[in-house]
Design a protein that fits this description.
Elements lengths: L1 H11 L6 E5 L5 H8 L3 E6 L2 H10 L8 E5 L14 E7 L8 H10 L1 E12 L7 H5 L8 H10 L3 E8 L3 H10 L7 H22 L6 E7 L3
Parallel strand pairs: 1-2, 1-4, 2-3, 4-5
Antiparallel strand pairs: 5-7, 6-7
Helix pairs in contact: 1-2, 1-8
Length: about 220
């Protein structure tokens, strides 16, 4: 869903700085967008097959703009050693980690004092359904729950907003139908409609409704 990825990145990219961690980089969609934006990226990924894929995808950028490391965000021993960065993004990842508090503490330690975290998680615990279970979600978050978790981990939450309002009815119906995925056709359609959705959200909904929550945080200086 390239249009959707671009929309999400454009929503969270302000103030990230030059050197950024992509925590839970997956196949590298957001690492790629950050490289195009002139940033240096530390891409952290847990699954070995994705680590290998990231290494191949960004092979020509090694030692210059990209560092790929295997990492378990929730590891009590912490994250791999690398110089602290200006900021970190963690998009649709922390809900897959059983010990989310440990993960948030680990991420804080790899960002410079005064540096930032932008985190996106699935919203509305009441919406948790068969599709969440199928893709390995431990939870969906309420706004207060997410902010409390971040503060407990030592982050200062600057603001929180809701994102992707048009995804809510689809996820709700998918749960009623006990679906495990929306399917490639619906994903492609949603991606095609993303420009219209993004304009509507920006000017009419303004972060008041959304399938996801985005929190903008800062590590104390």
């Amino acid at each position: 869903m390239p249009r959707f990825a671009r929309w999400m990145y454009d929503t969270i990219k302000a103030g990230l700085g030059k050197r950024v961690v992509d925590a839970g980089a997956g196949t590298g969609a957001y690492t790629d967008l950050m490289l195009a934006d002139g940033k240096e990226v530390v891409a952290l990924e847990y699954l070995p097959e994705f680590v290998a894929s990231l290494g191949e995808r960004f092979r020509d950028d090694y030692d210059a703009s990209v560092t790929v490391l295997q990492a378990d965000l929730g590891d009590p021993a912490g994250l791999p050693d690398f110089p602290p960065t200006d900021s970190m993004i963690c998009l649709n990842v922390i809900e897959h980690v059983e010990d989310d508090l440990q993960a948030l503490k680990n991420m804080r330690e790899r960002v410079k004092p005064g540096g930032r975290l932008v985190i996106l998680v699935p919203a509305y615990p009441w919406l948790y359904n068969s599709m969440d279970r199928a893709i390995g979600h431990y939870r969906r978050y309420g706004k207060g729950q997410l902010e409390s978790r971040l503060e407990e981990a030592g982050w200062i939450v600057e603001r929180t907003l809701r994102f992707n309002a048009f995804g809510v009815p689809g996820w709700f119906v998918g749960g009623i139908l006990r679906r495990k995925t929306a399917g490639k056709t619906l994903f492609a359609l949603y991606d095609f409609l993303t420009p219209a959705f993004s304009v509507t959200e920006r000017f009419l909904i303004r972060g008041m409704l959304g399938l996801s929550l985005i929190a903008y945080c800062r590590r104390p200086a």
